[in-house]
Amino acid sequence: MNRTTVVLADDHHILRQGLRALLEAEEEFAVIGEEADGLKVVDVVDRLRPDVLMLDVMMPGMNGLEITRQIVQRGFKTQVLIISMHANETYVREALRNGATGYVLKDANPAEMLQAVRKVRAGHRYLSSSLSERAIEAYANQAHETPADLYETLTTREREILQLAAESSSIGEIAARLGISPRTVESHRENLMRKLGLQSQTALIRYALRRGILPLED
Predict the structure, then answer these.
(1) What are the pLDDT digits (tens) for 22-80?
(2) Which backbone phi and psi does 86 adopt, to 5 degrees?
(3) Distance (Å, whole) CA 112 – CA 105
(4) For labeling, which of 39, 80, 89, 91 is most exposed (least CB within 10 Å)?
(5) Is the pTM of this model over 0.85?
(6) Could you tell me the domains of the chain?
(7) According to the model, what pLDDT value does residue 136 have?
């Protein structure tokens, strides 16, 4: 029996434990990796090449939406299933737009969670039942019809620095996390601020909230 391989990416250890227990109780699944740091998830997927990545939409360092974009951009065959406490349409739309195959809420019951993994493994789009199955096509259409905003002009490195800066990390902290020099961080930060038309740290944080890079209130 060829088991479905899964990587769990969430910064809450207890949730990862719960998902691992749920999946490994079924012979068809094998959890082959876990990650709590958003900046490391793409590398973990690159190394392990799981069938499914169960990914929290809000990860420290790099959010799940950007992680999804990078995984799809690199051509990995891994199917991305976003798991989230947020039912906000912004997240659902952006997840689908960036290439996620499914979006399931964390309060889903075990049977639904397993169904979601099976569906995305088979390449079928899946949204939590509470988001309404009739809305799947509408979400997908909206996702592809939404015009690109200024965020789309940012490089991958600028997106990484944007989130870390929005999380109030200092220049030195960002440099250490990304393994680059403080001067390089400053240069990227200046470029992304210019591209987005932002003039202050407060404006940057507000933009990150509005864009869904930091958690929105439902």
Answers:
(1) 999 999 999 999 999 999 999 999 999 999 999 999 999 999 999 999 999 999 999 99
(2) -100, 120
(3) 10
(4) 89
(5) no
(6) 4-145 (3.40.50.2300), 150-211 (1.10.10.10)
(7) 58
